[in-house]
Amino acid sequence: MPRGPITDNVLRAVRRLKAVNLAAYRAGARRAQELQANLRATEHVDGLHPTHAYWSFVQHQLSFFSEALLAVEEASRFRRLIEAAEEEYVPQGPPMSPLTGTYFFGWAYCDLAVGLAKERAGACAVDVVAELGVDPALVTAMRALVDSRMGLWTVVGHGAGTTILRESVTGDTVECVVPAGHPGGVGERWFVRVLPSPREGLPGLVFNTPYVLVSPAAEWEAYLNRTLPKLDAKRPE
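User: That's the sequence. What structure does it adopt?
Assistant: Structure tokens below.
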């Protein structure tokens, strides 16, 4: 996707101010390479399933780079919208919020689109670090996270510590780790962000705590059938 004006302005500001801590970026890149090299289907990293460990690290790196981005005045449109939403919804409480922290992170950095070019804070951050020479493997992983989306999925089975989901619109079936600890019952319909396997032989990841849909499936399907034709999208997903 071509860069928009916000990203172009941020890049010019970074070049002009030389405000980027390249040592931190390079350290992050080295850690990403180590994690990728050490992933094994039978190993757990820091007590986590390898898939969970991998995407947790990628999320932390994207969060670090995106928060640094939001400090730049040229990215103030992102910052104002995200801060206003945080104040309005208080993700993860207290005392109680309908939004989990993982859901809000995905919305703020992967979904929230600004301006005519529909720029996103996470995509802007990835474009900046890519130009600065961060390790391509880390850039690719962060871009995959940024380009992920929420979807409507149905639980169709279970594996060894995993849940098998089928996407309602595309029909894709994915075996996933669910860090939230809710494996779901067969037939449950979830609103979740599913991340791909980090390497062959590993499952994908349900990134956010599942939102379990209680309305009948026919109502959701009728809603999608009414809504999708009105969207300016080349693919149903």
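Confidence is low (pLDDT under 50) at residues 39-44.
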